[in-house]
Amino acid sequence: MESNKIRQAFLDFFESKGHAIVPSAPMVVKGDPTLMFTNAGMNQFKDIFLGNAPRKYPRAADTQKCLRVSGKHNDLEEVGHDTYHHTMFEMLGNWSYGDYFKKEAIEWAWELLHGVYGLPAERMYATVFEGSEEDGVPFDQEAYDYWLRYLPADHIIRGNKHDNFWEMGETGPCGPCSEIHFDLRDEAEIAAKPGREMVNASHPQVIEIWNLVFMQFNRKANGSLEELPARNVDTGMGFERLCMILQGKKSNYDTDVFQPTIGRIAEMSGKKYGEDRKADVAMRVIADHLRAIAFSIADGQLPSNVKAGYVIRRILRRAVRYGYTYLGFTEPTLCRLVPGLVGQMGGQFPELKAQQGLIEKVIEEEESSFLRTLATGINLLDGVISRTKGEGKELISGKDAFELYDTFGFPIDLTELIAREQGVGVDLAAFEKELQAQKERSRNAAAVDTDDWVELFPIRESVFTGYDTLTEKVRIARYRRV
Ligand code: ATP
Ligand code: MG
Ligand code: MG
Ligand code: MG
Question: The complex's ipTM?
Answer without folding.
Answer: 0.99
